[in-house]
Amino acid sequence: MRAVDALMECLKAEGVDVVFGLPGGANLPTYDAFYDAGIRHILVRHEAGGGHAAEGYAKASGKVGVSLGTSGPGATNLVTPICDAMMDSVPVVFITGQVRTELLGTDGFQEADTIGITMPIVKHSFMIQHPLEIPRTVHEAFHVARTGRPGPVVVDIPQDLSRADIPYEPVSDVHLPGYQPTIDGNQKQIRLAAKALANSRRPVIYAGGGVVGANAGPELTELGLADKFPVTCTVMGLGGFPAPHEQWLGMLGMHGTRAANYAIDEADLIVGIGARFDDRITGKLSEFAPRAKFIHIDIDPAEISKNVPAHIPIVGDAKNIIPRLTAEYRALAPDPARLEEWWSRIRTWQERHPLHYEDSTDGEIKPQYMIQALYQATEGDAIVTSDVGQHQMWTAQYYHFNQPRRWINSGGLGTMGFGLPAAMGAKVGCPDKTVVCVSGDGSVQMNMQELATCAQEDIAIKVFIMNNGYLGMVRQWQELFWDKRYSQVETGQWPDFVKVAEAYGATGMRFEDKNTLVSDMKEALATEGPVLVDVRVTREENTYPMIPAGKAARDMVG
Amino acid sequence: MGEPATKEVLSLDELEAVAGLRTGRKHILSILVENKPGVLTRIAGLFARRGFNIDTLAVGPTDDPTVSRVTLTLDGALHPIDQVTKQLHKLVNVLKIRDLEPEETLARELALFKVSTDGAGRAEVMQICEIFRAKIVDVTKRSVICEVTGTCDKVDAFERLVRPFGLIEMARTGEIAISRGRSET
Question: What is the ipTM of this complex?
Answer without folding.
Answer: 0.87
